[in-house]
């Protein structure tokens, strides 16, 4: 495998990320034009396949290849993968319940399998949380199958779970809330114990964050009161090639084009 740079970003609505939140021509399209990434995973596109291709037309004209999984409910979820290399194959998650939800898509490109995923937000002690847990179980089974296949793989996206106290600024205030529940954190711990590697944390072991999501409300962004919920989980053989990881945090609140920031990892050849 040659060197590979992979980014992930929850765009919080593809059309808004391109137009409505793009003062002074800042937004997703200029970012795609400037990024050094070879592969970009998008989440929460909130667009069907045709709308997504239309929104990304300038990037596709520049040579990006696109695979996408549209949401089953209008205006919800939706994931996609952009690659500067040909996409040899793409797959949805095999599930009667979640296969068409637009929450998981994997693609074979540049010699690796890259997946873009968007786990539900959830809400403690409600059916929404039970749905989240069912998807987590489905995802865990797919991850075990990828490991068994022995192919280099990295799963990128908005996991909507802060794993440890270092991954959330206000952890004390969120102990009983979805996204920081003991059961969710234990599930992530089990994935890591099975051999998956949280690449960003491996490269930044002793820091708070680096956070990748901040509420639009209040001064969360200005005060860096965020959550680290956008992960790259890589198979062990691929993870040892990770040489750098960074969160591309906007220089100012007014320059944000999503409530998330891109998280970028470079793997050596």
Concise summary:
The chain has 269 residues and is an alpha+beta fold. The chain has helices at residues 14-20, 28-34, 49-55, 57-61, 127-149, 182-193, 199-203, 236-239, and strands spanning 4-10, 39-43, 65-69, 79-83, 87-92, 104-109, 112-118, 153-158, 197-198, 230-234, 242-247, 263-267.
Q: Overview of this structure, please?
A:
The protein is α+β, with helices and mostly antiparallel strands and 269 residues long. The chain is 26% helix and 24% strand. It contains 8 helices and 12 strands. The strands form 2 sheets. It has a 6-stranded mixed sheet. Strands 5-6-7-8-10-9 form a 6-stranded mixed sheet. A hairpin with a 2-residue loop joins strand 6 and strand 7 (112-118). The longest helix has 23 residues, at 127-149. The protein is globular and about 45 Å long. It starts with a strand and ends with a strand. The model has no long low-confidence stretch (mean pLDDT 96).
Question: Which features does this protein show?
Answer:
alpha+beta, 12 strands, globular, 269 residues, six-stranded mixed beta sheet
